[in-house]
Amino acid sequence: MQSPSPKTLRPGVAALALAVAATAAVAAVRLSAVRTNNWSVNSPAAVFVPLTGAGATAVGFALPAAGRKVLTYSAECAVNAPAGNNTAWLDIDIIVNGVVVPPTVGTGDAFCDANGTAGFDGWARNSITVVITGLAGANTVRVVARGNGGATGLWLGQSALVVHD
What is the pLDDT of residue 120? Predict the structure, then answer.
């Protein structure tokens, strides 16, 4: 039997290396929280957002060791403001283990904004992805929403929160 030539071996080795790399790159999901119903409040005051269909405003996950993870939060979003106000906005703070995760700190980061008509309309599906530092053991995630710039109500519809490697 004749040995394969280096020219035929290289593509096979490259394909095997790519398959191993692709398998190793699969990210483990550490947390998945979904809310399939709408949530709104007729106030601009800061409030914890329900993250599950049962209304839980805190969700948790455990890690075998401390490390950096990726968190994505997505929700249908709208802001109620008086007619003509297209500068009102809803901002969120993502809080992991009691610490607000940048860049969601404070009120300057709009998640969505009003469109100038009175009432909840102009819905958009928005999301943010941030890097978080998880602790070995139990970890907790919360989301705070607040209205700014003349907002009179906040709407965060169906949502998903995912933490993965």
Answer: 87
